[in-house]
Amino acid sequence: MEKKACLSILLLFLFFSIGFAKIKKMVYPVIANNGYSEINVLQNNFWEFWARSDGLVGYNSMKKSQGGLFTSKRIPLIWQEGIIWGGIVRNHNTNTEIDTPRVGGIHYRVGTQAGHVIRIDNKYQIDPTSKGIFKINKNWQKLAEADLRRELALLLNKGELQITSNEVAALRQKYADNWENWPVELGAPFNDMNQNGFYDPVLDENGYTLPDSGDYPGMEQATQTIFFVINDLDSAKVKKLSGTEPFGLEVQITLWSYDTDFLPLAHTIFKRYVFINKSDQQIDSLFVGQFVDADVGDYSDDLIGCDTLLNLAFAYNGSDVDAEAIVRDLPPPAVGYNLLQGPLIETGNPDDVGIKDFKLHYGFMNLPMTSFVYLAAGGDLVDPPLGVIDYVLQMYNMLNGYIPTNDLKNPTPYVIGSGPKKGEPTKFPLGGDPVNDPEGLLGDVDGAGWNMGPTDRRFMLNTGPFTLKPDESQEIISAIIGGVEHDRLSSVKQVKSISKYLRTIYQNQFKNVNPIPDAPRVRASPFDEYVVLNWGWDEQSVKAIEQQEKNGFRFEGYNVYQLPDPKARLTDPATVKIATFDLINGVTQIIGLKPHPENGRYYESLLQLGLDSGVKHYMVLTEDQINQKPFYRGSTYYFAVTSYNYNPELPEYPSLESDYKVVQVTVQGEKPGDRYLSEPEQEIEVVANKESDVTCLVKVIDPSKVTGHQYQVYFTLDQDTNSTTFGEFLWNLKDLTKGVDVLNRQPIKKYQGPKPPNKIDENQIIVDGLLVKVFEPAKYLKAVVEVANAQYPDGLPEYEWDSGGMPYHGNNVWLSLSAPSDVNCFYISAGGEADAIDRILQNIFNAEGHDLEIRFTEKGGLYSWWYNDSNKVAAHVPFEGWDVGRVTYDDPSDDVRCLTGGYSGGATVGVFDFAYQDPYFNFPASDWIYLRKPLDAQGTYQVYEQDVLSGTWNYKWWDHSVSVLSKIIICDFTGAGTLPQTGTVIRFISSKSADEDLTFTFSARGKIANDLDLLKMDIEKINVFPNPYYAASLLEPDCFTHFVTFNHLSEHAIIRIFTLNGVLVRKLEKRDNSQFFRWDLKNAKGRPVASGMYVIQVEVPEINKQKILKLLVISSEQIK
C-alpha cells in the first residue's frame, strides 16, 4: 500500500488518535541523483537496498517508497531505517555535564549531512570532496551492458529501454573511477593483503587496482560495497530532529553484499558504522539504537520480536497470508537486524577479547544488544515528537530500554505481555520464541497475551552505554537478514538460522566469507579409446581446495560430469554425473536447501550423494556416458569436475559445490611418429633400499606425460613446530635424471592394523603423469615371539616355530603357548583387559621402530615400583629389558638396556610374584612389567640401578627416559606361578616406520616422440571421415556448417583435392600440433563442391611421402 503524508493530514490524525497509524510514514523530499553520488542502491539476487549520502538508508528517495526490498520479486521488508544516538556531553577538562542529554542521527527526520569533518584554523569544516556515495563492484570490468541498464533503471527511475548508451558508459566509468580512487583516506575499508595497515595497491597499465596482486578496495570477497561519510555538524538539522545541539560526530558508513548461491550470504546486507568524536568534549553514557520501520509485505499486519542470545531483532507477518506476498506467489517473509559487533569497552580482564577494526583486542569486550524497544500502531505509545526537547527525553529513555516518557529519573519499563512472567518489567519485551511457542505460553510473544495483534510496527535495537572522548572512535557492525520459507514462522526460523552462522563469519573477521569451494584445475588427455581427466597436477590448487577451512566448511569430495555441449550447465537434463570421489568418513547423503532454478527460492533437496569411495585426482574414461557407447575417434567430448564441501553444523545449508570450467577433448590415438610405452593405471615396480613397513606404490595415470626418468622417494623429519605434522617423517620425490625435487613435504598416509585397508585415498599430487602413494601402519606391534629358550638359547630351531611366529623365526606367544620344548610353558598377555594389546602399545611410538626384548638371564636385574615413594621399593628379578635396534638382532653394538619396573604392588610390594589372573584365559599372571628406554646418559640402566640401590631415589633417570612397553603380564600355563627359564628371550617386534635412510626408486617407461620410421608407417593411417559424406554429419554443430575431417596427420601436411578427371578443386596446408584437419567442402572460390567422387593427395613434405584417398560427397541438394 502506498504510504502518504502531508502536514495537514498528519495534524488532523494526531488530534484524534491516541496512538499512531500508517499515516506516520514520512515522505522525504527528492534529491537529484547527481552522478549517482547522492543516492545509490546495493543489490544482489535477493536484495535491493537504498542509501542516501546524508545517512538515510532503507528508503527509496527516487520513488518515495520502501527502501529495503527482498527476493528476486522485490517484496517490501523495510520502509525506512536509521541509526540514532543519544548521550551526555561533558566538559573534557572539568568533567561536568554541559546540558541535558543530546540525541542525533536519522529517524523520521535526518539530523545529519554528507561529508568528512576536517579542522582548519581550529574550526571544524566539511571537506567538499568527501560528500557523496562511493560504490564499487569487484566485477566492474566484466559487467554486461544489460546489468548496467538494469541498475540505471533503478538509479534514474526510468525504464530500461529509456537508458541511453551514454548513460551506460557514464555508469561504467563511475565504477572505474571509484575503483581507482577508493577513498581509503576517509576510512573506506580495503583488503590489506600484506597486513601492514597501509593501502598498497598494485596497479595495471591503466592505473586500476589489481585485486590478485596487492591491496584492493572494499570488503573481502564482497561483490558490491558502498561507502559514505556523514556528520552532525549542521545545528539546524539536528534541532529539527531533536531540538538539541550537535555532538560533533562523524560517522563512516559501509554497506556490502555478496552475489552467491550460499543462502546465508545471499540473504544478507552487512552494515558498518564507525563513530568518531570530532568535538573537544567527552560524550558519556552514549547509546546507539538501530531504528527500523519494518514493512513486511503489507505493513498493516506485522509482528516483531527479539532474541537476546542472537542479538537479533526481527519482524514477521502476523497472518498466514500477506497481501503483498500472495500477488508475488510468495509465502510471507521475515526480516531481522543482527547486532554482530557492539561498541568495544575495556574490562581489564586479559581473558576477555573484543573486536574492532577487524582485529582482536585482549582485555576488552564488545557490548551486546542491551535493550529492545518498540511501538505499535493503535497502541498507547506514540513516537517522540520531532524537533522539541520532549523528543530528546523520550528517545533517550528508549535508547536505555524504557518506554518513551519525559521522566529520565524515574523511567517506565516495558512489561512482559505473555507467558509465565507476564507483567514483569523487562528491557527485552517480545523476547519469546514465536517459532516454537506461537501462542506465547512459555515466553513473551508478540500478538499473544496482553500484546497487541498484528499492526504496523517499528522497533529499535540498542547498545550502550560507552564513552567517546575527543578523537576517539567506536565501531558497530550489523546485518540485515531476509528470510522466506514455506510459511511466516519458518521464515523467522530461517532468519534465526542465518543469524547463528553470521556470528561465525564475524568472529573470523570476515575472512573467507564465501565458503563456496575453489574449482579444480582440470587437464584432459585424449587417447585412442579412452580419455584421462587429471585435476591433481596443480599442487597449490589441490591444497587450496582440500586443506582450507572456510568458516566451518571443509572439503568433502569431487564430482565428475559429462556435458552434451560446451554451453550446457550441470543442471541440464542431458548432463550426466559420471562419478563422485569423496572422503571415507561416513558422510554420504547430504540434504539441505537448494535454490530453485526458476523462482530462486530455496527448497530442501539432495545436495550431494557421496559413496565413501575415497578421494581421487584423476579418472580414466573408456565410454561416452551420455550415449552409453564407446568413444568415437575424432569426436569431441565435454567434461567438468567440481569440488564440494560440508559443514555438519549447518543442517539447512551444509554443502556447497564449486564452479567449473568445461574441458573439451577430442578422442585420438598417438600423433604420427609418437608411441606411448605405458598404459593408464599401470603399476610400476618400486625398489626399496631396506626393509620397512612403509609401502610405496606408483601408478601411471597419463601416459602422454610420462618422462621415462628415474625417480627416488626419500624421507625427511618435519622440524617445523607450527606444522600439523611436526615430529613426523614426510616424503619427497626427486627426479634423479634432472637432479631436482618435484614434490616436497608430502604426508605419509597412516592406517590401523598390520594390513592396509581395501580403500586408501588416492588424493596425492600427480607428477609427470604418475601417481605416487606412500603409506604405513600406525605404530603397533607386529608380533610378540619367543626366539630362544633354555633348550635352545642361541635361537629356536625352525620346527619350534609356529605359523604366527614363523615370519620372525620364533614362536608366537601373544595369547598363544610358548615353544613345545619349554618346561615352564607360558604365554604373554596384557594386564587389566582381555585381549587388549593396545594396553601394551600405549607408548610404542617412543620405540621409534626399534624392537624390544625381555631376556631371562642368570644375573637378572632390578624391578622397581615407580611411584611408591613412601617405601621406595625395588626387587631383583630374573629378567632384563633391552632395545635391540631396528632388525639388527645379530649386532649387539646398538643394543640398549632398558629400565624395568611397574606401578602396582601385586600381592606383596617389593616381591615380583604371580598375584593376578590373566583376564583372557584366567591363568596365573605376573606383576605388570613396564619398559622405559633411556634418552641420554642420565637415563641409562646403570644410573637407574645406582639411584635405586642408594635408597635415596632422586628420580633424575625418570625425566631422561621414556616408556616404550607397558602392562605386560607373563602367564604361567602350568598354574604353578613360575617364570620362564633362563635363556628364554621374548621379542616384541614393532612396526618399521620411515626414517631418513629409507628410499624407494622407480622408473616408468615414457614415450617415443617424432620418430621418422614410425612417422613413415603412420602415413598409411591417414584417413578422412565421414566417408561417404552424405549431406550432413553428426559432428556438425548446425545445418549451415559442413565439413569432413582428416586424421593421423603430421604437424605439417599439404592436402590437394582433385576431381576424378584431375582438376584441382582445393589446396589446403596444415601447420599445427593437431593430427586433425577439416575441409569445409568448398572449392578455392569458397563455393560448395558438387556431389561426386574426389581424389585427395595428402603429402608430408618432411619425409617426402604421400597418401592417396578417395572421398564420395553427396550434397543435400542432390538428395532433394
UniProtKB/TrEMBL annotation:
The protein, known as: T9SS type A sorting domain-containing protein
Source organism: Caldithrix abyssi
